[in-house]
């Protein structure tokens, strides 16, 4: 048992079969911190291996015991604080023998490796050779038979750290989301100058063998063209590109944006460079053209909230995988599928990743896209549809109206843009309703075109205007305007009011035949409290705002030790923002409505902070959801902590307020909104065909009014009526919320002695079986 609880943590990029340079990614420190703290929590000894595989070979001071305090204040740091290096020595058997000897001497039989496919392949090779390496070490007299017996097998678990998101089997690798943040910051800045001067900008992003960054960036900024290695442009692309850019200018666009992955190539396998594209555009069109190569800017900076939470969750899962491992357990990699932590056999993932490269080199590009996974394929298909106007020859004579309901949030406009463009592609007439249900009742309805939504993806708030008014008292006027404007379907984008409003419209179908039309609700609220979806558009942007503010608040105490900050977050009665921001910012506690607390809990938290002030970490962060308790207000908690901490620590409080609803959308919210908007209109198109009877649309079945939401691993449509039983209408939250299960992680990482529920641990799944005939 003792041996099974020993584990070593190291970030390793040195062993790359393709000879790529060693790299680091934002979010690795969150993974290191979580692995260390959960390892210590389980009673394990945890060691750092500095400088990757080279540190493993060299041993000595490169392998050091980790402590709880040694991983404090790491969350907001980019890169990896324990170093990463390429290692020629580890490529040789002699080097791996030295590494094995160093591990055996310290009694280490569990290895956690954070890296790319080359690093993880090296780890698996090390594990496969382990018995032979030990035998050679015994023969050479470097270790005793007893030591070899105690370390008879080596367990390996991997976490993928790569900004390229080039590892098959996981939706997102650690560092990808942060890299997208860096890219989008640059794109937004460049867009403003490009519009001012009517310029064409060509941006080159990383991605030597994988076009994920380029593809998602193109989707998130509405780029005119994207070059990715998985799908080279068709022959004659030069003419097509120039024609497209000229058409955009003719429609009144003042800028053109082209995104190029560094590994972009032609069908003939020749590189396509940003300079080559610039020369083409300048020579053929005479446009003022500039190129920007982002380079290593993408690897640096502060990790996003998503990467911190991903790294933390992966770190916890990695320790659980090591502790549950047996000699027969294959080396696994912990990864993300939807919002689930999953374990996949390491070499299966590596094999599929290699299959993608092989498919690209052999010209099987459609297969390469499919092998990248469903998420990549969906992104590609959505981008292709929305980037350029290509309406059908025959109009559908269908009118689809869009409206925003509730408080504004970042990402709403991305959903409107994609819904409008997808509708036009389907041949529908798209109608914009201003100011929510009030606008629908007052007839504030007008056609919305392809070009009128240009540039909306990156805009915060609601361009259509939004109000909290529910339709219940306006049904007469609403039904009249639905008939007057001949509206055949409704897309409602908003928060809990959008959900309740949708329900009221469904109930009104009995009285008003005009409302018997297909309806889809797209959750968009910072509170993330809409039943039927694990995530809402806008929540990620708010979460990043809170996290970055908490970083600044904590940093402000760097010169003033022994200080505790009380920070109030939005969310209504939903504790999602407080919980996730607590995990991302390293909070000591997060008070939420869903988890009842009393004076004894507050007392425990104060005592915990008193003990914390005795260590080298003399800062505290407490988050409080705005409606967690009507009596234990932010002022009450501030006063309590101030009184009880007298002479030990002082307190400060911050109410973040409406800054959480503003700002430009994060890459996640832009991408998520784009996918949701497009999928909603495709669903409505099919539903309209089903509901067409006797020359008119008539929809009154429960499944003709749905919420489109992300549930675990997929976007699903659920009838509004079916979700009523899972709704707490008084407190405006779903009765079951997935994120409550990861709250214990935050408490364990803050050093609370609680029980971690492992009843829902992830079993090893398989990735190869998902490939179908293409992968055979």
UniProtKB/TrEMBL annotation:
Its main location: cytoplasm. Residues 1-388 are annotated as: N-terminal catalytic PFK domain 1. Its EC number is 2.7.1.11. Substrate binds at residues 162-164, 199, 206-208, 262, 290, 296-299. The keyword Cytoplasm applies. Gene3D superfamilies: 3.40.50.450, Phosphofructokinase domain (3.40.50.460). PROSITE patterns: PHOSPHOFRUCTOKINASE. Beta-D-fructose 2,6-bisphosphate binds at residues 468, 525-529, 563, 570-572, 626, 652, 658-661, 732. Residues 399-776 are annotated as: C-terminal regulatory PFK domain 2. The active site is at residue 164. It comes from the Eukaryota. Its cofactor is Mg(2+). It is found in: Cytoplasm. Transmembrane segments: none annotated. Residues 24-321, 399-683 form the Phosphofructokinase domain. It is an enzyme of class 2 (transferase). InterPro entries: 6-Pfructokinase_euk, ATP_PFK, PFK_vert-type, Phosphofructokinase_CS, Phosphofructokinase_dom, PKF_sf. One of its GO terms (biological process) is fructose 6-phosphate metabolic process. One of its GO terms (cellular component) is membrane. ATP binds at residues 86-87, 116-119. HAMAP family: Phosphofructokinase_I_E. Belongs to the phosphofructokinase type A (PFKA) family. ATP-dependent PFK group I subfamily. Eukaryotic two domain clade 'E' sub-subfamily. This is ATP-dependent 6-phosphofructokinase. The gene is pfkm.
């Amino acid at each position: 048992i003792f041996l099974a609880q020993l584990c070593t943590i190291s970030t390793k990029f040195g062993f790359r079969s393709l000879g790529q340079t060693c790299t680091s990614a934002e979010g690795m420190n969150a993974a290191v911190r979580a692995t260390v703290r959960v390892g210590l929590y389980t009673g394990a000894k945890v060691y750092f291996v500095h400088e990757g595989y080279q540190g493993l070979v060299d041993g000595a001071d490169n392998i050091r015991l980790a402590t709880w305090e040694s991983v404090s204040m790491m969350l907001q740091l980019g890169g990896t604080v324990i170093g990463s290096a390429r290692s020629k020595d580890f490529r040789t058997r002699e080097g791996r023998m030295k590494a094995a000897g160093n591990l055996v001497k310290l009694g280490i039989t569990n290895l956690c490796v954070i890296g790319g496919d080359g690093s993880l392949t090296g780890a698996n090779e090390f594990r496969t050779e382990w018995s032979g390496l030990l035998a050679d070490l015994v023969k050479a007299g470097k270790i005793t038979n007893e030591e070899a017996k105690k370390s008879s097998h080596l367990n390996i678990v991997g976490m993928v750290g790569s900004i390229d998101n080039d590892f098959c089997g996981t939706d997102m690798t650690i560092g990808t989301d942060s890299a997208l943040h860096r890219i989008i910051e640059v794109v937004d800045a460049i867009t403003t100058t490009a519009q001012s001067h009517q310029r064409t900008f060509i941006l080159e992003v990383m991605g030597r063998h994988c076009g994920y960054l380029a593809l998602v960036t193109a989707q998130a900024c509405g780029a005119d063209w994207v070059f990715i290695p998985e799908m080279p442009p068709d022959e004659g692309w030069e003419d097509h590109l120039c024609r497209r850019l000229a058409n955009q200018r003719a429609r009144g666009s003042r800028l053109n944006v082209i995104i190029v992955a560094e590994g972009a190539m032609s069908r003939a396998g020749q590189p396509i460079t940003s300079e080559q594209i610039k020369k083409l555009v300048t020579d053929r069109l005479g446009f003022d053209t500039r190129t920007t190569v982002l380079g290593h800017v993408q690897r640096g900076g502060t990790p996003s909230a998503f990467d911190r939470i991903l790294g933390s969750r992966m770190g916890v899962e990695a320790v659980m995988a090591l502790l549950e491992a047996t000699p027969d357990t294959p080396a696994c990699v912990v990864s993300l599928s939807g919002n689930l932590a999953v374990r996949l056999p390491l070499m299966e993932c590596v094999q599929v990743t290699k299959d993608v490269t092989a498919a690209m080199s052999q010209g099987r590009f459609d297969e390469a896209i499919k092998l990248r996974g469903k998420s990549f394929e969906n992104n590609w298909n959505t981008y292709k549809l929305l980037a350029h106007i290509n309406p059908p020859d025959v109009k559908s004579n269908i009118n689809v109206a869009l409206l925003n309901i509730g408080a504004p949030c970042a990402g709403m406009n991305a959903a409107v843009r994609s819904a409008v463009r997808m509708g036009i592609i389907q041949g529908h007439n798209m109608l914009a309703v201003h100011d929510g249900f009030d606008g629908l009742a007052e007839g504030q309805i007008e056609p919305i075109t392809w070009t009128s939504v240009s540039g909306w993806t990156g805009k915060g708030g609601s361009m259509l205007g939004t109000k909290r008014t529910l339709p219940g008292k306006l049904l007469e006027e609403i039904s009249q305007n639905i008939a007057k404007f001949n509206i055949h379907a409704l897309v409602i984008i908003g928060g809990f009011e959008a959900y309740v409003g949708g329900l009221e419209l469904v109930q009104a179908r009995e009285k008003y035949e005009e409302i018997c039309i297909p309806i889809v609700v797209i959750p968009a609220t910072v509170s993330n409290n809409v039943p039927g979806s694990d995530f809402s558009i806008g929540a990620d942007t708010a979460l990043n705002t809170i996290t970055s503010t908490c970083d600044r608040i904590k940093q402000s105490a760097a010169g003033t030790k022994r200080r505790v900050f009380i920070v109030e977050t939005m969310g209504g009665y939903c504790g999602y923002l407080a919980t996730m921001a607590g995990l991302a910012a390293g909070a000591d506690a997060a008070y939420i409505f869903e988890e009842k607390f009393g004076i004894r809990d507050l007392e425990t938290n104060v005592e915990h902070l008193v003990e914390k002030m005795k260590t080298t970490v003399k800062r505290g962060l407490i988050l409080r959801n705005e409606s967690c308790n009507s009596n234990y207000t932010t002022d009450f908690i501030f006063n309590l902590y101030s009184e009880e901490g007298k002479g030990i620590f002082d307190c400060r409080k911050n109410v973040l307020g409406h800054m959480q609803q503003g700002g430009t959308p994060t890459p996640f919210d832009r991408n998520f909104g784009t996918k949701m908007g497009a999928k909603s209109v495709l669903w409505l198109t099919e539903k309209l065909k089903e509901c067409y009877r006797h020359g008119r649309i008539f929809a009154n079945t429960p499944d003709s009014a749905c919420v489109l939401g992300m549930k675990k691993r997929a976007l699903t449509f659920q009838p509004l009526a079916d979700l009523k039983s899972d709704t707490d209408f008084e407190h405006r939250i779903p009765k079951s919320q997935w994120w409550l299960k990861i709250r214990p992680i935050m408490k364990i990482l803050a050093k609370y002695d609680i029980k971690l529920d492992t009843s829902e641990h992830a079993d090893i799944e398989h990735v190869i079986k998902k490939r179908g005939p293409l992968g055979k």
